[in-house]
Design a protein that fits this description.
single chain; 230 residues; mainly alpha; 10 helices; 79% helix; 0% strand; globular
Length: 230
C-alpha cells in the first residue's frame, strides 16, 4: 500500500485520513442540528450563534488552535477534567480531529443550511397537520430532501479537515506518527535539506484528495437531486 511513499509519508497520509474521517463523522449530527436551527427556528441570540458558528472561517487558524489549547489543554479546567476520565485532546491525534472539526464545521453547516432553506416549509407543515411529530417530519420529509446538502457539507468538511494546518499544529504540535498530518508533514519536510521531493509527493496527494472531494460532492448532489425531483 502506497509503496512509493516513505514510512513517514505513509503515516502522515493515514493519520490525516483518520483525523478527517472522525472529524466529519462526529460533527455531522451537530452540523445537521445547527443548520436546521439556523434555517428554521427563531430564538434570541440567533445572530450571535450564527456568528460563532462561522467564526473559525475568519479567525486566524493559530488563534483557533490557541483557544483550543487554553480550553482543552491538560492544565485547563475542562481539559484537566476530561483527562481525569481518560479523554485527552492536547498533543494527541484526537486533538487534531477536534481542531479539524471546528475549522471545517462552518463549511458543513453552510452547505446544509442552504439545502434546508431551499425546502418549502409548507411540505413540513402539511406533514405536521396530519399528526406527525416534528422528529418524524424531519426524518421522513426534510432529511430526504436535504440529503444532497448533507452529503455535500460532509464531503467539503472532510476535505477541509484533511488540509487543516494552523489550528492543528498549535493545539497538538507536529509529532511524527502521532499528530503529524499531511500539511504538518509538508511543512516539516520543507524545513530540512533534501525534503522537497517528499513535500512534493504529499502536495500532490493533498491536491488529488481535494479535487476528488469537490467532484464527489458535485456528482452526489446532482444525482440525489434528480432522484428526489423524480
Amino acid at each position: 500500500m502506497m509503496e512509493w511513499l516513505s514510512p513517514e509519508e505513509q503515516q502522515a497520509v493515514l493519520l490525516s485520513l483518520r483525523v478527517a474521517f472522525w472529524a466529519t463523522i462526529v460533527s455531522l449530527p451537530f452540523g445537521v442540528f445547527t443548520a436546521y436551527a439556523l434555517a428554521r427556528w427563531r430564538f434570541p441570540g440567533k445572530q450571535i450563534v450564527n456568528g460563532l458558528v462561522h467564526l473559525p472561517l475568519i479567525l486566524p487558524p493559530v488563534v483557533t488552535g490557541y483557544l483550543l489549547l487554553i480550553t482543552f489543554g491538560r492544565r485547563a479546567p475542562i481539559g484537566a477534567a476530561l483527562h481525569e476520565i481518560g479523554i485527552t485532546f492536547a498533543f494527541r491525534w484526537t486533538g487534531a480531529a477536534l481542531a479539524a472539526a471546528i475549522v471545517a464545521f462552518p463549511l458543513m453547516v453552510r452547505a446544509m443550511r442552504l439545502s434546508i432553506e431551499a425546502v418549502d416549509p409548507k411540505l413540513e407543515q402539511a406533514a405536521g397537520a396530519l399528526g406527525a411529530s416534528r422528529i418524524w417530519v424531519f426524518l421522513t420529509v426534510t432529511l430526504p430532501l436535504i440529503l444532497p446538502g448533507v452529503l455535500t457539507g460532509a464531503i467539503l468538511a472532510f476535505a477541509k479537515a484533511m488540509g487543516e494546518f494552523g489550528a492543528t499544529i498549535t493545539f497538538v504540535s507536529n509529532i511524527p506518527g502521532q499528530t503529524q498530518t499531511l500539511p504538518s508533514a509538508i511543512y516539516a519536510f520543507l524545513q530540512v535539506p533534501g525534503g522537497e521531493s517528499s513535500a512534493l509527493r504529499l502536495v500532490g496527494i493533498s491536491v488529488a484528495i481535494a479535487m476528488l472531494a469537490l467532484l464527489a460532492s458535485e456528482l452526489l448532489a446532482r444525482r440525489l437531486a434528480r432522484r428526489i425531483s423524480g
